[in-house]
Amino acid sequence: MENKRKKPILLTAFGGNALIRSGQKGTAEEQFENLNLPMRQIARLSMKYTVVITHGNGPQVGNLLLQQESCDEVPKMPLEIIGAQTQGQIGYMIESSLETALMESGINSEQYFATLITYVVVDENDPAFQQPTKPIGPFYTEEEAIALANETNFGLASALWTENVSRAHRVADKIEAGIVWVNCWFLRDLRTPFGGSKQSGIGRE
C-alpha cells in the first residue's frame, strides 16, 4: 500500500463561552455569528493541518437549565442529559459553520468531517468534586450580582458562596435582606431575632 504523506495534526479547543459573548442572551443566531470568524480561520489552517476540534459547553448547559426552569409544562432532564444535548448542539454548530467557511474558501468539504461522540466515565470519589471551580450558567461581576439580588421587592433571606472572607462581608453588607447566609443555607438559631426587608416584613421577631 502506497504511503501518503500525512498532514500534521492541529488540536484546537473552544470553551463554551467562545460561542456566547458578554451581554448576549445565547440565541442560536448569536452563537452562529460568533463562530464565523474562528471557523474561517480554521478553514484556512485545514489546508496545511488535519484539524481536531474539541469544545466545552458550560454556558450552554446553564442556558438550557434556565429554559427548563422557566417552563413548567416541559419535562425536566437530568444534568447529564442536558450536558449531552448541549455538546451535540455545539458540535452541529461548529460543523455547519466550518462547512460554510470551507466552501467560501474554495475547499471541497465533502467527506471532510469525522464527528466523534465521547463518553467520559467520572469517578464519584474524584477529589475535584470537593472543590469545584467552574460555574454552570451566566457569570456576573460583584456589582452586577448585588444589583440583581436587590432588584426584587422582597428581602427575607439570601445566600452567597465565596472563598474570600472580605468579599463575603462586603457583599453581605450590600444585600437588602434580613438574613444573609455565607456558604450555607437555612442554618439559624431561632433564639436570635430575625426578619425581612422591603415587602418581606418590617421589624424583628
TrEMBL record:
Ranges in a coiled coil: none
UniProt name for this protein: Aldehyde dehydrogenase domain-containing protein
PANTHER family in UniProt: CARBAMATE KINASE, CARBAMATE KINASE-RELATED
InterPro entries xref list: AceGlu_kinase-like_sf (IPR036393), Aldehyde_DH_dom (IPR015590), Carb_kinase (IPR003964)
Gene Ontology BP terms: L-arginine deiminase pathway
Keyword field contains Magnesium: no
Keyword Repressor: no
All copies of domain Aldehyde dehydrogenase, residue ranges: 132-205
Keywords tagged on the record: Kinase, Transferase
SUPFAM superfamilies, A to Z: Carbamate kinase-like
Any one GO molecular function term: carbamate kinase activity
This protein's GO CC annotations: cytosol
